[in-house]
Design brief:
The chain is an alpha/beta fold and 307 residues long. It is built from eleven helices and ten strands. Helices cover 49% and strands 17% of the residues. The strands form two sheets. Strands 1, 2, 3, 4, 5, 8, 9 and 10 form an eight-stranded mixed beta sheet that branches. The chain has a two-stranded antiparallel sheet with strand order 6-7.
Length: 307
């Protein structure tokens, strides 16, 4: 049952967020980085639950790492994502069509442009890695129109506020729960659709290997690719320097036509893009959102049939 909303509380939270955004946008870059560092220091010490989730995830993903290195990695994760939040706030005032090269480097740019202009529908597959909000914003600055699948925020005021940022350069946001028809229409008309592909899909999800451990994954991306013959462009946006320097990396392009007629096509495609995401994370492990329970569900062992 959905939690009952309290309009006055939602609006008060919205006003507080707007105030924080105004203050951060007014700060010079050095002061903004200092704020991000202070937030990371505080979050690491206060947020014990997610801190332990990250340690457990890293223990499975990097079993050979000593505990001290894993703890340093957890601290770096908080520092990275607090920095990302601050930079997202500053993004509309700092990143423009005339200065994007100061902040963004396209790695595999030829393949990115080819996928966006080939005339076929396109699935842009990414994960909770680097600054995933940057990709749609930057691609819009370059004149390409894309759609992204996301979950609407429960606070409608914050949802509208975030939506204005996400759609500020032409990207369209589609709700993952209510806009399935528009999702299909986007691909049916040859559009580009971005989706996060590293969320736990529950016990009924498709289990594929991710860091040597079964990870429950939604089948929808592979099914859409096969239904609409849409290539999958696996991308990531790692932070590579200051001030606010990122790469938009095309890690792999997967053509569903290669899997036509295969009974295991959905599993094979899902495993392939998951492996590509893993390669991105291994290069920048501190920039993955290890704070979420990616391996929350595990396969249930089947009972042996009676003789």
């Amino acid at each position: 049952m959905a939690k009952e909303r309290r309009p006055a509380v939602d609006y008060a939270i919205y006003l507080t967020v707007r105030l924080v955004v105004c203050v951060v946008q007014a700060l010079p870059p050095s002061a903004a980085r200092a704020v991000a560092g202070a937030l990371a220091w505080l979050a690491y010490r206060v947020d014990r639950r997610h801190r332990e989730v990250a340690r457990d995830n890293l223990r499975h993903a990097f079993p050979d790492a000593v505990p001290g290195r894993r703890d340093r990695l957890v601290r770096a994760i908080y520092e990275h994502f607090c920095t990302v939040v601050v930079e997202i706030i500053r993004l509309p005032r700092k990143l423009h069509a005339i200065n994007w090269r100061r902040h963004i480097e396209l790695v595999g740019g030829d393949r990115i442009v080819e996928c966006l202009t080939c005339g076929r529908p396109l699935l842009i597959v990414t994960g909770h890695f680097g600054n995933w909000e940057m990709a749609g914003y930057a691609v819009g600055l370059l004149g390409f129109r894309t759609s992204a699948v996301a979950r609407r925020l429960d606070n409608r005021h914050l949802d509208r506020f975030l939506g204005r940022f996400r759609q500020g350069t032409g990207q369209r946001i589609l709700d993952k729960n209510t806009d399935y028809r528009q999702i299909q229409e986007t691909l049916a008309t040859g559009g580009a659709l971005a989706m996060l592909a590293d969320q736990d899909a529950g016990q009924r999800g498709l289990f594929v290997d991710f860091f040597g451990r079964p990870a429950s994954t939604f089948k929808s991306i592979a099914l859409l690719a096969l239904e609409f013959n849409a290539p999958l462009m696996v991308t990531g946006v790692p932070k590579v320097g200051e001030p606010m320097r990122y790469q938009v990396v095309c890690e792999e392009v997967i053509d569903p036509a290669e899997y036509a007629g295969r009974r295991d096509a959905v599993t094979a495609i899902t495993q392939r893009y998951t492996a590509a995401l893993e390669r991105l994370v291994r290069r920048h492990p501190e920039q993955y959102f290890w704070l979420h329970r990616r391996w929350k569900h595990q396969p249930i062992a089947r009972k042996a049939k009676a003789a």
